[in-house]
Amino acid sequence: MTKRRWMIVVVTAIGFLVLVGVSQTVQRLRAQEVASKTDDHSGHDHGAQTEEDAHAGQDPSTDAGEDDHAGHDHSTHGEAIKLTEAQLGQMEVATAIAGPGPLDVQITLLGEIRLNEDRVAHIVPRISGVVKEVWAHLGDQVRAGQILALIESRELAIAKAEYLAALQRRTLAEEIFKREKSLYEAKVSAEADYLIARQQQAEQAIEVSLALQKLLALGLSQEQVAELPEQSQDDLRIYALTAPYDGTIIEKHLVQGEVVSGQASVYRLADLSTVWVDLNAYQKDAPALRQGQRVAITGDGLVPVEATITYVAPLLREDLRTLQVRAVLRNTNNRYRPGLFVSGRVTVDGRDAKIAVPAEAILNVDGKDSVFVQTADGFTPVPVKIGRSNGRSVEILAGLNPGQRYAARGAFALKAVKVTRSLEGHAGHGH
Fold first, then answer.
1. Would you list the DSSP string of 309-341?
2. 38 part of a folded domain
3. Residue finishing a domain among 213, 231, 264
4. Domain shared by 345 and 379, yes or no
5. Residue 360, domain CATH
6. Are 144 and 224 part of one and the same domain?
7. Which end of the chain has a smaller Cβ tally under 10 Å, C or N?
């Protein structure tokens, strides 16, 4: 009885497994049938119907049509793009003749306009005193020798007095020397008196020279020193602070009544007739840069101008890891103000190319660099081999021959027309 029960259990289990396998097979077949129907409808491949029509005695011409469709070469992709002059104008297509052209390789550097530090003066009074009058103010344009301010100085008054006293002593010593010389020559006085007078004259001349050098060191000119004997006593203590050369006051640090020291910078004067253009070059561009190269300077709101590189730093800046490149600009009418950001374009290679085309004339067509060449049939994309490029022009090594007319501008519009026609050709196959 136990054996029979065991047999019943085994048979039942086997039957259950068989039913499960059959069920899974049926489901898989149904899924394949649904997928097949979906593919047939989406691909419009009504092959069964075509076969039935053929067996039903379909006209032989139908077979010929099927053969034509099977042999379709999609010639629309290779057709030339034929456009009228009006269409070319609307699409802004312009043509040019392939030929040689310059292919200048240029480096663009960024920088700013700066003061010409060789023409900037820190004006120092050189004496201590009290500011009596201020005649030059911030932004004023001054001439060389123009008085900027007047300073009352006791130190200057003493130096001037010493000079005037030395002049008086020298004059007296010269008169004594002349008298002693005439007496000595007339055998009236002794030679010793003559020699003493000559020595005193020489000593007084030395004192005058020392007093003069002291005044010159304080900033007085030879002309100002020559006018001292005619000056009034009140003017002896007045120091006139003057401009060393033509320029513009860009800093001012004194006011009337202020006490200033002899080492204080009270004015900063800049000659703005020239300015520096300091540009920054990356390390990779450093070998191509040198003095004497021309650089085109441009900037927002600035008149483009060319200058010559006058300085290339021998060392890289540690903070920026860039190389300093400098040019000097003539600054007529103060057009180039220090502090403005500019860019400089330096031509480092000026070789010509046998065939050069604008960069926009080259497009990727079917995975190849191509140029649209114009023939009697229209525009056709022609694969080309490109060489050097400067971002604006590209050298053509092969594929485009001299004398051929090509689309120098508007090539993208021609490519769009080509792609559109290709899509229309696919849609019209009917499949």
1. EEEEEEEE-TTT--EEEEEEEE-GGG-S-TT-E
2. no
3. 264
4. no
5. 2.40.420.20
6. yes
7. N
Q: What total of structural domains would you count in the chain?
A: 3
411 and 324 within one domain: no
Is residue 250 situated within a structural domain?
Answer: yes
Whole-structure pTM value:
0.59
Cα–Cα dist 354/101, whole Å: 7
Three-state SS for 251? strand
**Residue 277 shares a structural domain with residue 208:** no
The answer to whether residues 240 and 155 belong to one domain is: yes
Rounded to whole angstroms, the Cα distance separating 395 from 381 reads 17
What pLDDT, in 10s, does the model give residues 69-122? Answer: 333 333 334 578 888 888 888 888 889 999 998 887 788 999 999 999 999 999
Q: Tell me how far the alpha carbon of residue 73 is from its chain's centroid.
A: 53
**Identity at 3, one-letter amino acid code:** K
How far apart are the C-alpha atoms of 20 and 64, rounded to whole Å? 51
| CA gap 417, 421 in Å, rounded | 6
Reported as a single tens digit per residue, the pLDDT across 173-217 is: 999 999 988 988 888 888 888 899 999 999 999 999 999 999 998
Structural domain for 132, as ranges: 125-264
User: 298: closest CA among 333, 348, 344?
Assistant: 344
* Tens digits of residue pLDDT in 361-373: 999 988 899 999 9
- State how far the Cα of 371 lies from the Cα of 379, in Å rounded to an integer: 9
Residue 88: predicted pLDDT: 84
